[in-house]
Write a structure and sequence with these properties.
Length: about 325
């Protein structure tokens, strides 16, 4: 699940909430169970807080059955009443989503049996990209071992504005058939260099460990992009631009780099990291995300282009 503004899914039918409510009237109350749009799907949630901000009501949701890390503030256009009619809409949307996933080559998985499995599956569904690395199975004879590997996952809390960026990214590509114009500027390499310069000015020095983390991010990005970070509609664009020894990090930019941070916890779960090192790594990753957020208007494109939005090729891995 990812945070989102009003998605295409929410416009497929009339929402029970109708138009935005008058500024002095809230359609939903604290403690009320609701249905909430989240990416391409609808989830059951509970309203925990209600606030009036700039003449618009905002609702703090807890998604039932999900970790509290997914709790978020949403606007009224994301919500529906828990009526039989809206539950039918939820099931119809879910059925269409599963069928679409199956047609694109992904298996329609059963509902997760526990929250660890749910979190892994949810990470996959929210970006509609290739499934997570194999090995994290449902309950079976090796369930204990699988759960231990899941517990090692470094939880990365992506800032709310960047989570909305992920949803907008999903909508542009999967719903509007648009792509990021490539090659991007700044590229992933450029952003990593800018971050290094930013830390050097802020701290007055650069530690070897920070340099290694940034090299690791670049390496993970180059390796993970074709496997985990592309939507099906982006693959032709990838094959046209990333040829020979071209590094994806010299072609792609912040949009695809941000997708890496969704998958990074699962990828790092397979790396043997000491607890103390893991804490420092987590801090560095969060600081980098804050840097992306601070420069969001500069690093991310505001609009995507048609499927032919490519101009040239990136640099070789040896450049």
């Amino acid at each position: 699940m990812v945070n989102s503004s009003k998605d295409d899914a929410a416009t497929d039918g009339d929402m029970s909430s109708g138009d935005s409510p008058p500024s002095n009237t809230s359609l939903y109350s604290e403690g009320e169970k609701v249905l909430a749009y989240h990416g391409p799907r609808i989830y059951e949630a509970k309203v925990q807080k209600v606030e009036l901000r700039k003449k618009e009501f905002r609702y703090f949701l807890h998604y039932l059955g999900w970790n509290k890390n997914w709790d978020e503030w949403v606007s009224v256009d994301r919500l529906m009443k828990c009526t039989d009619e809206n539950r039918l809409k939820q099931r119809a949307l879910e059925k269409g989503y599963v069928e679409k996933s199956s047609k694109s080559g992904r298996s329609a998985q059963a509902k997760p049996k526990n929250l660890n499995d749910a979190r892994v599956e949810k990470e996959d569904h929210k970006n509609n990209v290739v499934a997570a690395p194999k090995g994290k199975k449902r309950k079976n004879d090796s369930g204990t071992k699988d759960n231990q590997s899941v517990e090692k996952v470094i939880k990365i809390q992506i800032p709310s504005t960047l989570r909305k960026q992920l949803v907008d990214d999903w909508e542009f590509v999967t719903q509007q058939d648009k792509l990021v114009k490539l090659p991007r500027s700044p590229t992933v390499d450029d952003i990593l260099t800018k971050y290094l310069e930013y830390r050097s000015k802020r701290d007055g020095t650069i530690t070897d460990s920070l340099g290694e983390v940034l090299k690791g991010i670049r390496c993970y990005f180059d390796k993970a992009l074709p496997v985990l970070l592309l939507y099906n509609k982006e693959r032709d664009q990838y094959h046209k631009l990333v040829v020979d020894d071209v590094s994806p990090s010299t072609v792609y930019g912040a949009e695809h780099l941000l997708r890496l941070f969704v998958k990074l916890p699962e990828l790092l779960a397979y790396v043997n990291i000491e607890d103390e090192t893991q804490i420092r790594l987590h801090q560095k990753l969060l600081d980098f995300l804050k840097f992306l957020q601070k420069n969001q208007s500069t690093f991310f494109v505001s609009a995507y282009e048609g499927c032919k939005g490519t101009e040239g090729k990136g640099k070789s891995k040896n450049d």
